[in-house]
Amino acid sequence: MSTIKRVAILGSTGSIGTQALDVIQQHSDKFEVEVLTAFNNKDLLIKQALAFQPNVVVIGNENHYLEVKEALSKHPIKVYAGDKALASVVEMETIDIVLTALVGYAGLIPTIKAIEAGKPIALANKETLVVAGDLITKLAKKKAVNIYPVDSEHSAIFQCLVGEFHNPIEKIILTASGGPFRGRDREYLKNVTKEQALKHPNWDMGAKITIDSASLMNKGLEVIEAKWLFGLDASQIEVIVHPQSIVHSLVQFEDGSIKGQLGLPDMRIPIQFALSYPERVKSNFERFNFMDYPNLQFEKPDRQTFKNLDLAFTALVRGGNAACSLNAANEIAVAAFLQDKVKFLEMSDLIEQSMEKISFIKEPSLDDLIATDKETRIISEELISRK
Ligand code: NAD
Ligand code: MG
Question: What is the pLDDT of residues 22-68, one digit of tens each?
């Protein structure tokens, strides 16, 4: 049997996707690309396909299909387009692991299909666990499929748990950089621009997660993601601000001992670990030096200024379809902020108001979640257009 893992990358043209390809290129003896997918960025998708020669590529936006097909016509690469193709390619027998590096709710159905087909998941797409954590984790258990976290905080926790899976977690401590607006008050935040919000101090990421980091919604989504990945209650999840992003997160065990995982902020480490687990693969990434960081800081998050963290905890405690509507309203709010249709602080109000209007379903089916997502988006759009 070949020891090479064949990887399907959903969202290969994004920040996580391109870094995953960097990892794969550096370890071509361990990984090969089976599937590449992107939504709009056809030029980069074509370039990647020519370089990595996958079996299949999928372009989400069907308008680009002919161009991608034509560009790859001299190669043995199948080209498909659209959402349905994205949801069915993950079932291919030749795939060993699916990296979900696409952004937002669009990850939900492909992730479900991949788990149903028995594929291990390297999960970057946190929104899927926010929307349907209960359903996804139950399905993964039923299918005996492992979900390996890619998000740096969750990878840190996972790395702390290796060798400890039988030991109960007392609590986890999720670290947050605080984003570009750490220490600012509501008066300052009233008129901040998208350009300011898009300047993250430590990480270079896609636009949506960068805005989420500035508004602390990213940490809120990560709290919910952690609940599902590690089977925790809200009371077991603590968030602390750590501006240098060196301590990626920590686990406290029942004897009071705390384990953390540290390193320079480089997503290629968690991406690589999710693909190579249980092995660690030798890398040439820059090493961390304590003497460069003599003053690591830790602070309490400012929950009065950044309301999204509490909104996420509320959704987590409420359960049911609450986090699904939180996610949908947030996706609409971020898109509107990026189009200058709402202001920075208005995003939290929009999310809170949208969530209040959605009827609560305690044990939602997949169809209920799809309907909740749709309804919330309509409500949020309506609230924006009434402004
Ligand atoms: P990105 O915007 O850079 O890339 C997103 C990718 O998804 C692109 O390849 C795009 O073509 C594809 N895509 C977008 N919309 C799609 C749709 N509707 N259907 C199919 N494909 C679509 O985003 P990113 O920063 O790489 O983040 C990807 C995911 O990983 C997000 O869920 C994010 O929260 C998570 N994540 C990212 C980082 C990071 O450092 N970038 C860290 C932790 C977690
Ligand atoms: Mg993270």
Answer: 999 999 999 999 999 999 999 999 999 999 999 999 999 999 999 99
Q: For residues 109 and 279, give the distance between their C-alpha atoms in angstroms, rounded to a whole number.
A: 29
371 exposure class (CB count in 10 Å sphere: 0-12, 13-18, 19+): middle
Token pair in block for residue 42: 């056809």
pLDDT at 2 over 60: no
**Ligand 1 lined by 41 (C-beta under 6 Å):** yes
Listed by start position, the domains of the chain span 5-149, 152-267+284-303, 319-387
Class of domain 319-387: mainly alpha
Is the Cβ–Cβ distance between 175 and 248 less than 8 Å? yes
CA distance 303 to 311: 10
Is the separation of the CB atoms in 13 and 38 below 8 Å? yes
- Please report the atom of ligand 1 found closest to the CA of residue 204: 40
pLDDT, tens only, 199-245: 988 888 999 999 999 999 999 999 999 999 999 999 999 999 999 99
Closest Cα to atom 22 of ligand 1: 39
User: Is the distance from the beta carbon of residue 151 to the nearest atom of ligand 1 less than 6 Å?
Assistant: yes
Q: Residue 361 pLDDT more than 60?
A: yes
The two structure tokens encoding residue 52: 């990595």
CATH of domain 5-149: 3.40.50.720
Q: How many A from CA of 217 to the centre of ligand 2?
A: 11
What ipTM was assigned to the predicted interfaces of this complex? 0.99
